[in-house]
Amino acid sequence: MTMRTTARLFSVALLSLGLITGCASTDEASDEVTAAQAIADAKAANAEARALNYEWRDTGKLIAKAEKALEAGNDEEAIKLANQAKEQATIAVAQAEAENKKFLNSMADESASGASSSASSARGMGGKVSSYSVVRGDNLWNISGKDEVYADPYQWPLIYKTNRDKIKDADLIYPGQVLDIDQNASASEIDAAINHAKTRGAWSLGDTEQSDRDYLAK
Fold first, then answer.
1. pTM of the entire predicted model
2. Percentage of the chain with pLDDT > 70?
3. How far is CA 70 from CA 42, 94, 107, 117, 209, in A?
């Protein structure tokens, strides 16, 4: 925090204690308090998204811009940027929770179907597909989690790598795309895919993340 920002916040404290007066100064202080709180809220929301490994790459940049705007005395812009960052982080957390719910539901369904040993045996011996046609609402995570694909959403990078010529951004696939499904991946390839899925880091729609490029290069 710069000396200018520190001084402004000190003035806010004095105003709140009634040690200095002035409507204009009070309004300015109020705006700065609002901006500082908005930035704090955005940081907290983004920290939650980061902890879930679902941080959007742009969110941190927005928070940094909001802090610069606050230091420059542009409280309105700081509030706007901070609120945008918080909204992104909130969406990211919701996405993580939704994907986790899907995973838990798929595990519950698999457990229920696995109650029958014959059904479990049949699933282990066949039913695997070599290609998959994308439908509306699909993403690599839920496709990978399907029994006929990998029955494990964390193996989605295998699909991405197999179809690197068809998929520019792992977070964007389209209805009608026919994706090849590699059912002969080695144990090390599967481990690498799962590790990438769990450690991929921040991402944003429309971009090929550097971590994805590194994974594809292996």
1. 0.46
2. 73
3. 14, 28, 47, 63, 30
